[in-house]
Amino acid sequence: MSRIGKLPVPVPAGVTIAVTDGVLKVKGPKGELVQALATGVAIEHAAGVARVTRADETRQVRSNHGLTRALLNNMVKGVTTGFERKLDIQGVGFKSEVKGTTLVMQLGFSHPIEFPFPDGIKITVEKGTKLTVVGSDRQVVGETAAKLKAFRPPDAYKGKGVRYEGEHIRLKAGKTAKK
Questions:
Q1: Which residues is 102 bridged to in the sheet?
Q2: Angle of CA points 11, 7, 86, to nearest 5°
Q3: Nearest to 5 by CA among 58, 61, 45, 47
Q4: Chain centre distance of CA 161
Q5: Quick check: 64 and 40 in contact, CB under 8 A?
Q6: d(CA 140, CA 119)
Q7: How far is the C-alpha of 152 from the C-alpha of 146, rounded, in Å?
């Protein structure tokens, strides 16, 4: 039995789970998330707890068992508390600001980078260099943060660029002076 798949998912009050035609819908105070349900897996919901069960013991169904439970857990957490990812911008003259539903970033290029917010994502900027990506879908929050980081990854010599908060960048030693 899958160690992850057999764990029950606690469902707080105010969250509804519905499975219709192979589509899982989770609705809560922070929105609604939809996910296609894998074959051979069923979800039982009762008394504030959801459990994922599987139909047979084939390799693919066993794999889908743990995956479906993890996705369901992330969906329940997303519609109740949401997910966030924080980024830092480091470098002289590097900054960002929010204009409507677009993030405008100055990252040392000859032009500003304009990034429109994906659906369900909110980006806030503090002091021009601290970004916070917030949303209810964990996958979209992570993808958005990765796209923002990819515009200017941290440099290996000075560390300039966009990095995740708390990320440690190992800097290379530069050229040494000849004596």
A1: 99, 116
A2: 65
A3: 61
A4: 20
A5: yes
A6: 9
A7: 11
User: Which pLDDT tens digit goes with each residue over 90-103?
Assistant: 989 999 999 999 99
**Alpha helices for the chain (secondary structure H):** 59-80, 138-151
Angle at the Cα of 139 from the Cα atoms of 16 and 104, rounded to 5 degrees: 120
What pLDDT was estimated at residue 4? 83
Q: Tokens 């503090």 belong to which residue? A: 126
Q: What stretches of 107-149 adopt beta strand conformation (E)?
A: 113-116, 121-126, 130-135
Other beta carbons within 10 angstroms of residue 127's beta carbon come to 7
pLDDT in tens, 113-133: 999 999 989 999 999 889 999
Domains and CATH numbers, the chain: 9-80 (3.90.930.12), 83-164 (3.90.930.12)
